[in-house]
Design brief:
This protein has about 260 residues and is α+β, with helices and mostly antiparallel strands. Helices cover about 35% and strands about 30% of the residues. Strands 1, 2, 5, 8, 10 and 11 form a 6-stranded antiparallel sheet that branches. Strands 3-4-9-6-7 form a 5-stranded antiparallel sheet, with no helix packed on it. The N and C termini lie far apart (about 125 Å).
Length: about 260
């Protein structure tokens, strides 16, 4: 008997079955995620454990090496042991060489580089004399390197380079003289006329003292060649004051 309604071959799925399936899939997904997280944490733990174990093994190896080295360093122990002390000591020397090569050259003390050299210098004190070219004596506790040689008031350099030249002359500035006092530093060239490097001029002072002591100080850098000669002269050497520390002359090598 036909009721007039279409026939369906599939019956509707119960709602409870769908909820159960979703819950099961969610549980499976959570379990997989937990497994992945647990595997990752386990891997990290094993990696850290292996790394720590490697450090312990390295420390143990270092300790064993040091013990062997200590035995080989003692003659009485080296004779009684079966260790190859020549090989152990050679390895230790190689290790020291490698570590030394890693140290930057600029961090080593100057005495270890072998290339550090003290700059040459000389300092002379005024010596009373009637000559116009001032005469000098080696100052107390002052350096005088082999780069320089002194004769008759003149300094000769045996090594070309850049030098700083300086001089100070103390003099009596009597008001009644009315004559300027001048200081000159010259470069003496055998085949040419002397070249003026420095010049200073002092005038008479208002002091009522018998001397009216004043001073002129000069200094400059100059490029000198081997054999060049430097000397100092003044307009009136009788006015020069030679008391300790007042009049001096010197030079030093610039790096």
């Amino acid at each position: 008997m036909d009721s007039g309604e279409p026939y369906s071959s599939t019956a509707p799925r119960p709602a409870g079955s769908t909820v159960t399936m979703k819950a099961f899939l969610g549980l499976i997904t959570a379990f997989v995620i937990a497994q992945l997280i647990g595997t990752a944490l386990l891997g990290l733990y094993l990696y850290m454990k292996v790394d720590k174990l490697g450090d312990e093994i390295t420390l143990q190896d270092d300790f064993v090496f040091l013990r062997r080295l200590q035995k080989c360093r003692k003659p009485q122990d080296a004779d009684a042991t079966l260790l190859d002390c020549a090989k152990i000591l050679g390895s230790f020397q190689d290790l020291l060489q490698v570590q030394t090569n890693k140290v930057p050259l600029e961090s080593l003390p100057a005495k270890q580089t072998g290339d550090k050299r003290q700059a040459a210098s000389i300092h002379l004190a005024g010596l009373k004399d009637s000559k116009r070219v001032l005469q000098w004596n080696k100052a107390v506790y002052a350096p005088m390197d082999d780069v320089f040689s002194y004769q008759d008031g003149k300094l000769k350099v045996a090594k070309g380079g850049r030098y700083y030249i300086y001089s100070q002359v103390a003099f009596c500035a009597k008001p009644e003289l009315h004559v300027p006092f001048s200081l000159y530093v010259y470069l003496h060239l055998p085949s040419e006329s002397d070249r003026l490097l420095l010049k200073g001029v002092g005038t008479h002072g208002p002091s009522d003292d018998l001397c009216g002591l004043q001073s002129i100080h000069l200094g400059r850098a100059a490029e000198l060649q081997e054999g060049h000669v430097i000397f100092v002269n003044v307009t009136d050497s009788s006015r020069v004051n030679y008391d300790h520390g007042n009049t001096y002359f010197g030079m030093f090598e610039l790096s």
